[in-house]
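Posting this for the archive.
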Amino acid sequence: MPTSDRLRDHAGQGATTVAAHRARRRLRADQARQLADLLRHQLLTVGFPDGTLPHESTLATDYRASRNTVRQALDLLRAEGLVERLPGVGTVVVAQKYPHGLDHLMGLAETLREHGRVTNEVRTMGPAPAPTPVADRLQVPPGTDVLYIERLRRLNGLPLSLDLTYIPLDIGTALLGADLENTDVFRLLEAITGQRLGHAEITLEAVNADTHSAAVLEAPRGAAVLMLERLTHLADGRPVDLEFIRFRGDRITMSGLLHRSL
């Protein structure tokens, strides 16, 4: 065989070997991500009650994965700030996410009452002209004054969410003297209007924290936060509360019960 042909054959074999190696790496990365998802669920549902994960070899056996895959999965969880490796101890849970249900219309303190005390730092509060998108959602004329509230909400002292709230002024005026530091706005709205809240339209997406939000939430600049946009209506259908809520993604998890209907 001519030398040039042998070189081409060798080069082809080398390319095949490199491609196979890359394929194995991709497969291991996929498996690590899948395992991280399973372990994350265990972490968030207190599947490791003593706060320590089993040894890597045990995880490898339980999940039928290689030790390298287990290590990569734990690295992913460590990058999320959920676990840490301590010499002589092993991999331990270092952060907790709190469950926020999406199948009931409840205030934050009502939602998280089993996990501690929610307090509110009112950063800004007062009448402000409604931007057109806000006016449209609240069904008031553009430029009409609405009550604007900005609150930093903490759970057990830790920053959890930054809430921007718009309320029609005929209802919102009564909130000016209310105890917003320790009371959910939902409860106050029901007391003021004499009606129960009826339903809410929600949108949930991940966004990067802007400089202001990151500073207030004590999160890294550009960190991913969960943005919940919620328009809440009274039982009679009137929209009364438009909120833009930025949750620290490392401290909250959203969950709900869905029923299939066609």
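The CA atoms of residues 154 and 160 lie 5 Å apart. The chain has a mean pLDDT of 88.
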